[in-house]
């Protein structure tokens, strides 16, 4: 059995680039940064950032190019793929590892971060009412009583 599955959550390092194949199919490419934080043996905090090349096809590519921008948060689910080509200037074979996305889910947007076509903010944080959760991530309400492992049905 074989499995080629990639799942990454991170922030875009640049605006998506939208192109078209000769067949007319749209292709969007962008890069996603993921961070990893840990403590070394001496207790010092260390941080590492990895960059992932993402490729999206079809209608989803158009949606990604329309709504995601540099700094946006996104979850990408897809498969790993290595492409190769001959570099025209050096004549050497070049390789690129990328994630071909099956699904891209947009992350939460900060409240008041939306802009209209004129570039003005659509709402100010001071105008927030209890019913206006537009642009905020849904929060999870946890039960107040303690959950016991024996109560879980699976």
From TrEMBL:
<dbReference type="InterPro" id="IPR011344">
    <property type="entry name" value="ssDNA-bd"/>
</dbReference>
<dbReference type="GO" id="GO:0009295">
    <property type="term" value="C:nucleoid"/>
</dbReference>
<feature type="compositionally biased region" description="Basic and acidic residues">
    <location>
        <begin position="145"/>
        <end position="154"/>
    </location>
</feature>
<comment type="subunit">
    <text>Homotetramer.</text>
</comment>
<dbReference type="InterPro" id="IPR012340">
    <property type="entry name" value="NA-bd_OB-fold"/>
</dbReference>
<protein>
    <recommendedName>
        <fullName>Single-stranded DNA-binding protein</fullName>
    </recommendedName>
</protein>
<dbReference type="GO" id="GO:0003697">
    <property type="term" value="F:single-stranded DNA binding"/>
</dbReference>
<dbReference type="GO" id="GO:0006260">
    <property type="term" value="P:DNA replication"/>
</dbReference>
<keyword id="KW-0238">DNA-binding</keyword>
<dbReference type="Pfam" id="PF00436">
    <property type="entry name" value="SSB"/>
</dbReference>
<feature type="region of interest" description="Disordered">
    <location>
        <begin position="105"/>
        <end position="154"/>
    </location>
</feature>
<dbReference type="InterPro" id="IPR000424">
    <property type="entry name" value="Primosome_PriB/ssb"/>
</dbReference>
